[in-house]
Write a structure and sequence with these properties.
Blueprint: H1 3-8, H2 29-49, H3 51-54, H4 61-70, E1 72-73, E2 124-130, H5 139-149, E3 154-158, H6 164-175, E4 180-185, H7 191-196, E5 202-207, E6 211-213, E7 218-221, E8 228-231, E9 235-239, H8 245-249, E10 253-259, H9 263-276, E11 278-279, H10 299-302, H11 344-361, H12 366-376, H13 384-387
Parallel strand pairs: 3-4, 4-5
Antiparallel strand pairs: 1-7, 2-10, 3-8, 5-11, 6-7, 8-9, 9-10
């Protein structure tokens, strides 16, 4: 609870008037009433009653759209809608801490090293940009170097984590005994992300922003926009960079690498965020859980070599009829083993490359099948990459 909230509970507290031009100006009753109308009546009610006092200037159209989409009925213990059969989350209220004061905060159960004194660490500040300046590494390379050198702990706070190379580095670090803690923005976290981050030595939690509740029982929760990587309690990489492919290759970013006594502030901040975060359920057992510790090829994710079967596996199929015109051995039915194509593209090519010579051997259907094959291999039916 902030100092202003504590003081508001004191009947004898005196608040000095603050003008809008003052840096300390934060709370506006007019803005609060307008936001309540937005939550209760939507954009129409907000714009129709905002009046000339505000002219709707304190919220941009994008903010109005986001708040409208995020608005929900007030609930004491919100449960995420992204997963099915989830574990019950801990009660959490960002504005009234006594609501869960009897519940101990989550512990760093994977281990947390003791912080060394600031005298043992050299204070330094370095700024890196993306795209990088001359003779400086890209931000992605810089982060991966620190992750691969970690020996004690890795603590990450970010809104998104989908970069395959970074996920591979985290799995490698966890496999060599380095505890990995990750806090993600609750709204932008999907089940696939959680499954790809599953590891016995990796703990993933989610956290939202601050909440605003209206008197009519409507509420809105903001976003968690903190972004920093804490490595071995020695180095902090802090900035606007998200751990995604797009940030590595498309967007402009700026990060600061900090060492020394300032790391203690990020250590404390991570503990605060971790205590306020909520757990995510253990991912369902799908082929995502079989991702290797180090992802060397993106195709291993998009086109797994062993696809999951929806039905029961046929272990002893019946023998093909002996009088069939088709060459079953050439089609792979009579071969010793059955291999699944590496990708849908290879499967598409293999089927017709195998069938085409066999169909030509059938004398009664030679002309018809040849016409069909030529028509099928026209540009209309070619794979997308070949059409391009």
């Amino acid at each position: 609870m902030s100092n202003s909230q504590e003081q508001s509970l004191d009947e004898n507290a005196v608040f000095l008037p603050t003008s809008e031009s003052s840096p300390g100006f934060l709370y506006s009753e007019t803005e609060r009433l307008a936001l309540e109308r937005l939550l209760n009546a939507g954009p129409e009610g907000f714009y129709s009653t905002a009046g000339s006092q505000l002219s709707s200037s304190f919220l941009s159209p994008e903010e109005v759209t986001n708040i409208t989409n995020w608005a929900q009925d007030y609930q004491l213990s919100p449960k995420p809608e992204l997963w099915e059969n989830v574990l019950e989350l801990e009660d959490y209220c960002s504005t009234y801490y006594p609501g869960h004061s009897d519940t101990p905060p989550p512990g760093l159960c994977l281990g947390w090293p003791e912080s060394s004194t600031w005298r043992e660490r050299e204070n330094s500040v370095k700024v890196y940009s993306s795209p990088p300046v001359e003779d400086e590494p890209p931000v992605r390379e810089l982060i991966r170097q620190h992750l691969q050198k970690a020996t004690q702990v890795i603590a990450i706070v970010t809104d998104r984590l989908t970069d395959c190379s970074v996920i591979g580095d985290l799995h490698n670090a966890a496999s060599r005994g380095v505890p990995v803690y990750i806090i993600l923005n609750q709204r932008s976290t999907h089940e696939g992300t959680v499954q790809r981050l599953w590891h016995p030595n990796m703990q993933v939690r989610v956290l939202g922003g601050k909440s605003f509740c209206s008197r009519a029982g409507r509420m809105v929760v903001g976003e968690m926009k903190d972004k920093f990587v804490l490595v071995d309690l020695q180095t902090v990489i802090h900035g606007s960079y998200s751990l995604t492919w797009s940030d590595a290759h498309l967007h402009r970013q700026l990060v600061t690498v900090l060492t020394g006594s300032v790391v203690d502030s990020f250590d404390r901040e991570f503990r605060i965020l971790f205590a306020g975060s909520s757990p995510v359920p253990e991912p369902r057992r799908t082929y995502w859980n079989q991702i290797p510790n180090h992802i060397n090829n993106f195709s291993e994710i998009m086109f797994p070599k062993h696809l999951p079967y929806l039905g029961a596996e046929v272990t002893n199929p019946p023998s093909p009829p002996s009088d069939a015109l088709l060459d079953w051995e050439a089609m792979g039915v009579m071969s010793g083993g059955c291999s699944v194509p590496n990708s849908p593209l290879e499967q598409h090519q293999d089927v017709f490359l195998k069938d085409k010579p066999v169909l030509n051997n059938a004398a009664t259907t030679t002309d018809k099948n040849t016409t069909f094959a030529d028509h099928f291999f026209s540009t209309k039916h070619l794979p997308l990459d070949k059409k391009r």
